[in-house]
What we know:
Largest sheet: 4 strands, antiparallel
Mean pLDDT: 93
Strand order of the largest sheet: 1-2-3-4
Distance between the termini: 23 Å
Number of helices: 0
Oligomer: single chain
Strand content: over 45%
Shape: globular
Number of strands: 28
Order of helices and strands: EEEEEEEEEEEEEEEEEEEEEEEEEEEE
Radius of gyration: 18 Å
Helix content: under 10%
Amino acid sequence: MNHGDGxxxxxxxxxxxxxxxxxxxxxxxxxxxxETGEALCSLLVAxxxxxxxxxxxxxxxxxxxxxxxxxxxxxxxxxxxxxADPFPAHDDWILALRKTTDGAELLTAAYDGTVxxxxxxxxxxxxxxxxAHDGAIRAMTLTPDDExxxxxxxxxxxRRWHRTDATLLAGFDGHIGPxxxxxxxxxxxxxxxxxxDGTVxxxxxGSGGPLSDPLVAGAPVRVLTLTTDGExxxxxxDGTVxxxQRTTGKPVGTPMATGHPSVWAITATPxxxxxxxxxxxxxxxxxxxxxxxxxVLRRATQQTRVDTAPRLEIRGTTPF
Length: 320
């Protein structure tokens, strides 16, 4: 699967894993049949500028996109029709977008260092901006109970916030430089962060302490995902995917070259048998565990590409 010269910036799957939705740095969204790579719609030009984050509502009916134009937009997944008028969320690039479990609330985090909460249906603001970091917020997620927001920033910090009253609950300091990736385990007990310092770090959510020595990726980490069977999977700026057993910190297999110059997006199927990567090169690749040796990832048979004119937004010297 390929967006041509539009670097793939976000990937998400429908609940049953049969359909993949991708977004790129040219502001476009496309839907794919995951197993065959068949495009299921024409390219949807969602934003005039880059889409940096995207999600599906819990019923899979809507695609919500956020980009460097600072707006949030809602789309009918099957028809690509706009569900509502776009609404301005920030005066700066939106780099992360999340939803509450019921899909009623959207949260955005931006280059301006703030987190904002929105009513998804009417776009009204639910709280004043939360000034979470000095400088850009690179990544954000919610705990499974929706009670806490976890943010990671260009300042190297990872922080926990109470979602409704914006109280700072804890800070995790250890990374040197920007932290582009953060995730929370399904049980809510552990926070995992990936940094441009080439490390992945595990934090106890309750105590704020590290759960192990840093996991060394050997290259700047751009994205990560947690599988349902206990792996940390990181996509790196050198085009590799690296895997660890989360509880032991032991590497799973060897670093795998994806063919992407840099891995910009990553996700896993609900059963965790397949990992999907999107890259700077505009390609989307599917990887399956070798049945004979689950530590080995092998390229699935299908890849897809959609050609377009080259386009990429750059902000500052090293925005990503």
